[in-house]
Amino acid sequence: MERTYAMIKPDGVRRGLTAEILSRFIRKGYRIVGLKQMIIPLELAQNHYGEHKERPFFGELVTFITSGPVVAIALEGNGTIAGLRQMMGATNPANAEMGTFRGDFASSIGENVIHGSANADDAARELGLFFSAAELLE
């Protein structure tokens, strides 16, 4: 079993997409082992996007992700990291296939509804940022 981190971004929460996204995870066969709605504090947002700190869009990322509630999700299942990435679709919704979250729901690169860990190292780091061990089901 593999665990990964997913997050419904403020635009997805604001547009009422939480139930649809969660139901797609469940229908895919993934187990939700952690779930919470939160407003991300500035320091956590900066840490989460730390790899982009030197890029010109870093400030925009942090401003957007702290602009409203998000839903933090810990998923478990076989191949969840690659499977989640496939379900998300391309970062640019213009390039995302229909049937993916971004192809179906995203409006722009900046407001693309969902985040998912890119690899196992990122998944472990991001799960640790957003969930304590006590908040995750065994």
What would you say about this model in short?
This protein has 138 residues and is of the alpha+beta class. It has helices spanning 10-14, 18-28, 42-48, 58-65, 80-88, 101-105, 120-130; strands spanning 2-8, 31-38, 70-77, 114-116.
Descriptive overview:
The chain has 7 helices and 4 strands; from the N terminus they run E-H-H-E-H-H-E-H-H-E-H. The protein has 138 residues and is of the alpha+beta class. The chain has one domain (2-132): 2-Layer Sandwich (Alpha-Beta Plaits), CATH 3.30.70. The chain has a 4-stranded antiparallel sheet with strand order 2-3-1-4. The longest helix has 11 residues, at 18-28. The radius of gyration is 14 Å and the shape is globular.
Number of domains: 1
Strand count: 4
Low-confidence stretches: none
What structural class do helix, strand and pairing data support?
alpha+beta
Overall helicity: 40-55%
Strand percent estimate: 15-25%
Query: What's the CATH C level?
Result: Alpha Beta
Q: Can you give the mean pLDDT?
A: 96
What is the correct CATH architecture? 2-Layer Sandwich
Question: What is the general shape?
Answer: globular
Distance between the termini: 11 Å
CATH superfamily: Nucleoside diphosphate kinase-like domain
Cα-atom radius of gyration: 14 Å
Helix/strand order: EHHEHHEHHEH
State the helix count. 7
User: Would you tell me which CATH topology applies?
Assistant: Alpha-Beta Plaits
Largest sheet: 4 strands, antiparallel
Strand order of the largest sheet: 2-3-1-4
